[in-house]
């Protein structure tokens, strides 16, 4: 029987090795309670199933206007449920458009321990605990490096520095012009085995696979059971205001493939193995 067990173990190792070579892709499951999308985004009373929105945000069947292109607007939409999954991926699809050459202020995607409604960071609360991904349209520090996309982690103690566009606070970022694109812009955030990857689709084509990696970081520890949110804000300059329209927010939980099956498999055969040894002992 020891040989049998060895075969199972070797088989598992082989399966695992084959999967490792063919890129260890996680299995994805759509999480409808943490997602929103058209064409029937709202219910008859104007509310969004499983989400809460507020400030200047206006929800319709097709999209959520998180802010209209007027001065000093703030809006947000937050999941009502927390995310219990250890590994996950979200894809936000949105349009940021305005008549000015320069826009303001920007849009943020959040994953935080609390719903950060109504705050100074692109419509979200400062000193958040978790992840903020910012689409910063306005060049506050005059470094000619906006529009800019950045990731900032916070443990609830740091205040976002608008004056420097958070330059020294970012985990990483990339220069991307995300305003006034022919197709919606998409941001995909994957958090898998403590690696955080932010990919951006720049809205120049309608090919859903046209993503480019903007930030990838290992050893990132995000809190469990956080809320997802999207917020936006405009500024005080009449000539630099944008519509921030969220088209969809899609969440998938991710699970590690094969290894789990192998553990069950080897545990099962291990028990059979042990059981037969016991019988042999009795004989
Ligand atoms: Ca800025
Ligand atoms: Ca700047």
Write down the overall geometry: globular
Q: Number of folding domains?
A: 1
What level of helicity do the residues show?
A: 10-25%
Counted beta strands: 18
CATH class designation:
Mainly Beta
The CATH architecture designation is Sandwich
CATH topology grouping? Jelly Rolls
Ligands, deduplicated = calcium ion
Low-confidence stretches: none
- Integer average pLDDT: 90
Compute the CA-based radius of gyration. Answer: 23 Å
What structural category do the secondary elements indicate? Answer: alpha+beta
Can you summarize the main beta sheet?
9 strands, antiparallel
Strand percent estimate: 35-45%
Number of H/I helices: 2
Membrane topology: Single-pass type I membrane protein
Keywords: Disulfide bond, Lectin, Membrane, Signal, Transmembrane, Transmembrane helix
GO molecular function: D-mannose binding
Organism: Lingula anatina (Brachiopod)
């Amino acid at each position: 029987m020891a040989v049998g067990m060895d075969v199972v173990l070797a088989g598992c190792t082989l399966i695992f090795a084959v999967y490792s070579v063919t890129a260890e892709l996680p299995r994805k499951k759509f999480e409808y309670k943490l997602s929103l999308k058209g064409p029937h985004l709202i219910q008859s009373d104007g509310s969004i199933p499983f989400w809460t929105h507020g400030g200047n945000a206006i929800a319709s069947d097709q999209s959520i206007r998180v802010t209209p292109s007027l001065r000093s607007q703030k809006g947000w939409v937050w999941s009502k449920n927390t995310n219990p999954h250890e590994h996950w991926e979200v894809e936000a699809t949105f349009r940021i458009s305005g008549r000015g050459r320069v826009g303001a202020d920007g849009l943020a995607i959040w994953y935080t321990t609390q719903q950060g409604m109504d705050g100074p960071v692109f419509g979200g609360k400062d000193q958040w605990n978790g992840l903020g991904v910012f689409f910063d349209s306005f060049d506050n520090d005059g470094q000619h490096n906006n529009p800019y996309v950045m990731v900032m982690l916070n443990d609830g103690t740091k205040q976002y520095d608008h004056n420097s566009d958070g330059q020294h606070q970012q985990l990483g970022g990339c220069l991307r012009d995300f305003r006034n694109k022919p197709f919606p812009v998409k941001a995909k955030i994957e958090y898998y085995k403590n690696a955080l990857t932010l990919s951006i689709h720049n809205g120049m084509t309608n090919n859903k696979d046209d993503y480019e990696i903007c930030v990838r970081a290992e050893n990132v520890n995000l809190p469990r059971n956080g809320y997802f949110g999207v917020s936006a804000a405009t500024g005080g300059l009449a000539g630099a205001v944008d519509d921030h329209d969220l088209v969809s927010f899609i969440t998938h939980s991710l699970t590690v493939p094969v290894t789990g099956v192998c553990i069950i498999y080897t545990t099962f055969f291990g028990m059979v193995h042990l059981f037969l040894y016991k019988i042999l002992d009795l004989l």
